[in-house]
Amino acid sequence: RRTPTIVQSSPGLDPIVDFARSCVRGLYADPRTLESRFLYDAQGSALFEEITRQPEYYLTRTEAAILAAHAAEIRELTGPTRILELGSGSSLKTDHLLKAWLERGGPTRYYPVDVSSAALSAACAGIRSRFPAVEMVGIQCQYREVFPLLAQLSPVLVAFLGSSIGNFAPPEMLAFVRTLAAALRPGDFFLLGVDLVKERSILEAAYNDQAGVTARFTRNLFVRMNRELDAGIDLDAIEHAAWYRQDQELVEISARFTREQSFRLTPPGRVITMGQGDLVRTEISRKFRMERVIPELEGCGFAAERVFTDSQRWFALLLLRR
Ligand code: AVJ
C-alpha cells in the first residue's frame, strides 16, 4: 500500500500566532470581520462537507452535474494536462475530472491543495482508493503559496471549484486572478466554478439551512478561538446570520452576539468586548453575472475558452485559457 504523499509549505509563522493576530486585527476593525480561511480546521472542513449535502445548498450538486456532463469535453479541450485543484476539500467533484483524464489514457497527475491538513489527508486517501492509477501529491498551504510552483507543473489545468472565489472581495479577486495568470504559462488552463445571481429566497435558504449546519459552521470559528486561543467565549450567545445584499450581489455571513461579553485572545492577550447585537462578519459569498465576470477575467490575462452551465443557469463552470 502506497500512502498518499503530502507536502507542507515551510511554516513562516506559527499557525496559532497567525490565527491570533488575524482575529485581533479583525475584531478591532470596523466593521468587525474574521478571515474565512480560518473556518477550515478539521471540524470546519467536515461541517462544510455536511453543508454540501444539505437540500438547500444547491451549489455543489449543480456544479457536480455540470462537471459530470462536460468533463470529457473539458479533457478534449485541454489535452493531457496535470490537474492542480485549489481548495480541494473532499475532492468528490473532482472524480468526474479524474475519470475523464483516465479514460483518455496516459498518466493522470493530480495535485490537491488545501489549508486543512485533515481535509487534505482525507481527500488524498479517498482519491487513492477510488483511483489507484492517479499519480498524486497533496500540497498543504494557502493558495498564493502554490503560485510559484505552477510554472514547473505546466501544462496544467488549475481547478478552483465551488465558487470559492466568491469569498474574495472584488479587488482581492482581481489580484488573485492576475497573480494566477502571471504564474501560469501561455496555453495553461484555469477551470473556475462561479455561483450566479439568482432570486433572493433561493440564496438565503442555501446559507440558512433548516438543519442548522451552516450555523454550526459559523459558530465553529469561535469554538476554534476557544480551543486554540483560550478565548473563553460563551458560545451560547452567538447566532448565525446570513442575508443577500442585492446592492453588492453577495451573501454576507456573520456571527451575532446575543449578549454582551468580553474575552481575551492569547497571544497577544488583548481584551475584546462585544455588545449585544454586535456582528462579526465571517464570510462574503459573491454571486456573479456571466456577462460581467467573463470580461473581468479576460482583463486579467485569460481567454474564455468555453462556458458550461445548468438548465436553470444557477451555476457556471468557466474554462479559461492563459
Ligand atoms: C466554500 C466559499 C464556496 O460561499 O458557498 C457555504 C462557503 N459558507 N455555506 C460558499 C459556505 C456557508 C462556500 N464556499
Automatic annotation (TrEMBL):
It is an enzyme of class 2 (transferase). Pfam families: Methyltransf_33 (PF10017). It comes from the Bacteria. Residues 20-321 form the Histidine-specific methyltransferase SAM-dependent domain. Keywords: Methyltransferase, Transferase. GO terms for biological process: methylation. Its EC number is 2.1.1.44. The keyword Ion transport does not apply. GO terms for molecular function: L-histidine N(alpha)-methyltransferase activity. NCBIfam families: egtD_ergothio (TIGR03438). This is Histidine N-alpha-methyltransferase. It comes from Geomonas paludis. The gene is egtD.
